[in-house]
Task: inverse folding
C-alpha cells in the first residue's frame, strides 16, 4: 500500500497559516474575520466617544442660556460629533460587517487582497488620532460643521489642516477597502453563485463600494483645494481672490449625498437578511430589491443641490433638484413594500435582531418622509438649518444605519463567538434604545418647525420643554449603549452554545460553517446547486 | 491568494494519466474589462465635469483611484490562469504548477512515489506526493471530497515498488 496517513501536522505548509496568537495576531492580521472584529471594536469605541460629545451637546441644551460651554466650543462639539459618527463609527462598522460576512456569504476564503485589508484598517488609527487630538491644538477643533464650508474652513486654525489630513487618510482607507470588496465579490464567488443569487447584503455592499469609488475622489479633491487655498495661495473658494465658496458646497455635496446612501444601503442589506429569517419566508421581490438599490445609487448623484436650496440657484435648478429628490422615494418605497410583503403572513418571531429590523423599517420610513418634506422647495427654505433637519437625518442615520448595525450584530454574533447572546438583555437594550431615541429626536421635529436653529448653544424660552425632553432622552440613549457593550462582552465570554445554523429560518453559506466560524473557512469553495 | 473552485481535465489511458486543476475565478477576463470600464466611466466623467467648472483637483484623485482599481483587477486576472497539473507517463510523474507568470515543475518516479494524506486540525485533508525525501503538495484547489478521489486515483498509479515488496 502506497498511502501514508498523518494527522495534525500543524507545521505543514498547508496549515502554516494556522491560528496566530497574541497581540501580533491583531497587528499583522490578514484574516478577514480578525480585521472585521477590529473594525467593529474601533467603530464602537468611536461611537461611544462621539456619543459622549452628543451628551455634552445635550447637557448644554438642557436649559436655555449658556450652561457649560462657550459657543465656540459648542460648535467644536457638534462638528466633531458629526465627523466622528460618520467617518469613525457608521462607515467602519459597515466595513467590519462586510469583512466578516461578505467572504462567508459568497463562499470565499478571504478578501481578494488581505494585506491591503489590514492596511485599510490600520489607516483608521492615525486618522482618528488626528481628529481626536485636534481639540488640544491652539484654537481648538474644527468648529464650522462637518461639511467644512469655506470661508470658515479657509480661515480656521491648525485643526482644519489636521481634519483635512484625517479625511484624506480615511478616504484612502475607504477606497482601498472598496476596491478590495469589489474585486472579492466579482472574482471570488463560489461556483454557482451568479450575481442574481448573491445575498442582498452582498449586493448592497457591492453598490456601496461603487458609490465610494465614485464619490471619494470628489471629497479628496474638495479638501485638497481647501488646503491649497489655506497654504498655497490658490483661490478656489476664497471670494477675496476671485474664488467661489458656493463651488465648495457643490463639490462637497456631490460627495456628501452619495455618502448618505453609503451609510444606508448596507443597512438595507442587513434588513433584507434579517427579515426573511424571522418571517421564515424568502425575501419578497429579490430582483426588484436589486434594481431598487441600483436606482437609489444612480439617483444619489443627481440630488446633491437639495442641500443648497437657500444658496441662490436658478428656479429651474431648484425644481430639478426638488423633483429628482422626490424620485428617490420610489425605489425606497419599493424596498419598504418588499420588507412588509416578506413579513406578510410570515411565521414571525421577534428575537432581538428582528425587533431591531422592524423598528428600522418603521423609524427609517419616518426619516424618509421627513426627507420628502425637506425636498419640497418652499418648505425647505423655511426648514433649512433648523432642528427639523437634525431630526430628519438622525431618523435616517441613527434609527436607520446605527440600529440596523446593532440588529446585524445581534443576528451574526452567535456565528462569530459560538455563543448565543442574552436574549432578555438584548430585548431590554432594544426597547431602551428605541424609546430613548424617539424621546430624543421626535420633539426636534416640533422645535425645528417652530424655527429653532441648529448649531446654536442657546435658544428662546419657548423651546425649553422640548429641549429638556430631548436631553433626557439623549442621556438615556447614551447610557443604554453601555448595556449593549455589556451584552456583547457577555456573549464573547460565554453563553449557550450556538448551533451552526443559529436561526431556524436562516439560509445562506455562512450558516453552513461551524459556530464560531473557524479561523479559515471555504479554503476550497462550496458548490451551489 | 485566491483559492477557489477547480476545473479539471482528465486524460486517462492505459499508460498515461493527466489531470489539471484550476482555481475558481467567477469573472472572465472580458467580464473584468467590462467591470473596470463600468467602474471607470462615471468617476472620470465626474472628474472632467468638475475640472470644467474650475475644481480641477478632483481629476488627479480620480486618476490615482482608477489606476489602483485597474491594477487590482489586473493582478487578480494574472492569477486567473494559474493551474496545477499532475501527469504520469511511463516512469515519469510530473507535477507542474503555474502561479502568476511563474511555472514550476517537479519530476518524480511513479514507482517510488508515495501518496501522503494528512488530516489537518481544521478538518481539511492535505495531499502530497513523497519521493526520495522530496514532498510536493498536490490538490490545493480541490475540496476535501475531490482530494480523497484524487488520492485514490494516484494510489492506483504510484508506489508500485512498495506494492511489489509487500
Result:
Amino acid at each position: 500500500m502506497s498511502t501514508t496517513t498523518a494527522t495534525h501536522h500543524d507545521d505543514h505548509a498547508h496549515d502554516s497559516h494556522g491560528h496566530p496568537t497574541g497581540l501580533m495576531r491583531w497587528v499583522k492580521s490578514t484574516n478577514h474575520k480578525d480585521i472585521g472584529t477590529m473594525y467593529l471594536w474601533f467603530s464602537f469605541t468611536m461611537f461611544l466617544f462621539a456619543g459622549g460629545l452628543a451628551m455634552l451637546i445635550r447637557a448644554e441644551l438642557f436649559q436655555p442660556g449658556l450652561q457649560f460651554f462657550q459657543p465656540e466650543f459648542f460648535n467644536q462639539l457638534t462638528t466633531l460629533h458629526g465627523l466622528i459618527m460618520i467617518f469613525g463609527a457608521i462607515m467602519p462598522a459597515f466595513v467590519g460587517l462586510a469583512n466578516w460576512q461578505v467572504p462567508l456569504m459568497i463562499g470565499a476564503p478571504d478578501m481578494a487582497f488581505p494585506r491591503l485589508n489590514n492596511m485599510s484598517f490600520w489607516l483608521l488609527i492615525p486618522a482618528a488620532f488626528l481628529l481626536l487630538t485636534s481639540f488640544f491644538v491652539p484654537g481648538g477643533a474644527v468648529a464650522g460643521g462637518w461639511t467644512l464650508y469655506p470661508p470658515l474652513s479657509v480661515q480656521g486654525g491648525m485643526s482644519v489642516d489636521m481634519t483635512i489630513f484625517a479625511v484624506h487618510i480615511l478616504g484612502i482607507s475607504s477606497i482601498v477597502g472598496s476596491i478590495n470588496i469589489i474585486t472579492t465579490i466579482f472574482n471570488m464567488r463560489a461556483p454557482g453563485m451568479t450575481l442574481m443569487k448573491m445575498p442582498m447584503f452582498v449586493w448592497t455592499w457591492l453598490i456601496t463600494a461603487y458609490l465610494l469609488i465614485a464619490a471619494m475622489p470628489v471629497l479628496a479633491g474638495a479638501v485638497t483645494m481647501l488646503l491649497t487655498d489655506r497654504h498655497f495661495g490658490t483661490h478656489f473658494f476664497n471670494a477675496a481672490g476671485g474664488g467661489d465658496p458656493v463651488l465648495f458646497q457643490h463639490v462637497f455635496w456631490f460627495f456628501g449625498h452619495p455618502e448618505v446612501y453609503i451609510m444606508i444601503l448596507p443597512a438595507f442589506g442587513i434588513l433584507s437578511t434579517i427579515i426573511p429569517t424571522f418571517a421564515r419566508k424568502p425575501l419578497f421581490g429579490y430582483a426588484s430589491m436589486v434594481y431598487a438599490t441600483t436606482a437609489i445609487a444612480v439617483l444619489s448623484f443627481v440630488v446633491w443641490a437639495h442641500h443648497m436650496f437657500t444658496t441662490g440657484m436658478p428656479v429651474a435648478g431648484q425644481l430639478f433638484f426638488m423633483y429628482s429628490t422626490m424620485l428617490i422615494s420610489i425605489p425606497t418605497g419599493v424596498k419598504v413594500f418588499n420588507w412588509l410583503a416578506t413579513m406578510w403572513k410570515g411565521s414571525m418571531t421577534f428575537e432581538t435582531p428582528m425587533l431591531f429590523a422592524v423598528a428600522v423599517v418603521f423609524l427609517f420610513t419616518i426619516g424618509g418622509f421627513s426627507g420628502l418634506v425637506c425636498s419640497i422647495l418652499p418648505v425647505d427654505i423655511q426648514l433649512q438649518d433648523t432642528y427639523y433637519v437634525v431630526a430628519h437625518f438622525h431618523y435616517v442615520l441613527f434609527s436607520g444605519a446605527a440600529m440596523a448595525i446593532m440588529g446585524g450584530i445581534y443576528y451574526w454574533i452567535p456565528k462569530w463567538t459560538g455563543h448565543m447572546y442574552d436574549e432578555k438583555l438584548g430585548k431590554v437594550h432594544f426597547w431602551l434604545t428605541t424609546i430613548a431615541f424617539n424621546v430624543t429626536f421626535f420633539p426636534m421635529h416640533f422645535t425645528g418647525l417652530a424655527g429653532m436653529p441648529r448649531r446654536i448653544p442657546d435658544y428662546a424660552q419657548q423651546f425649553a420643554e422640548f429641549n429638556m425632553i430631548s436631553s433626557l432622552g439623549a442621556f438615556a440613549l447614551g447610557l443604554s449603549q453601555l448595556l449593549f457593550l455589556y451584552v456583547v462582552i457577555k456573549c464573547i465570554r460565554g453563553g449557550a452554545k450556538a448551533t451552526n445554523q443559529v436561526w431556524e429560518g436562516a439560509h445562506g453559506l455562512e450558516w453552513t460553517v461551524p459556530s464560531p466560524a473557524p479561523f479559515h473557512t471555504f479554503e476550497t469553495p462550496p458548490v451551489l446547486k | 491568494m485566491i483559492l477557489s473552485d477547480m476545473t479539471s481535465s482528465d486524460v486517462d489511458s492505459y499508460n498515461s494519466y493527466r489531470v489539471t486543476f484550476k482555481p475558481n475565478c467567477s469573472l472572465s477576463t472580458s467580464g473584468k474589462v467590462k467591470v473596470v470600464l463600468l467602474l471607470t466611466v462615471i468617476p472620470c466623467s465626474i472628474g472632467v465635469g468638475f475640472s470644467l467648472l474650475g475644481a480641477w483637483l478632483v481629476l488627479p484623485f480620480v486618476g490615482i483611484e482608477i489606476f489602483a482599481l485597474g491594477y487590482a483587477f489586473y493582478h487578480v486576472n494574472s492569477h486567473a490562469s494559474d493551474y496545477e497539473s499532475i501527469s504520469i507517463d511511463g516512469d515519469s510523474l510530473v507535477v507542474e504548477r503555474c502561479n502568476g507568470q511563474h511555472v514550476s515543475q517537479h519530476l518524480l518516479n511513479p514507482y517510488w512515489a508515495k501518496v501522503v494524506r494528512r488530516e489537518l486540525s481544521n478538518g481539511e485533508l492535505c495531499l502530497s506526493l513523497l519521493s526520495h525525501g522530496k514532498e510536493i503538495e498536490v490538490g490545493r484547489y480541490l475540496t476535501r471530497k475531490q482530494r480523497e478521489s484524487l488520492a485514490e486515483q494516484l494510489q492506483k498509479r504510484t508506489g508500485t515498488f512498495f506494492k511489489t515488496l509487500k
About this structure: Chain B has a mean pLDDT of 84. The first strand of chain B starts at residue 7 and ends at 12. Chain B touches chain A through 65 residues (CB under 8 Å).
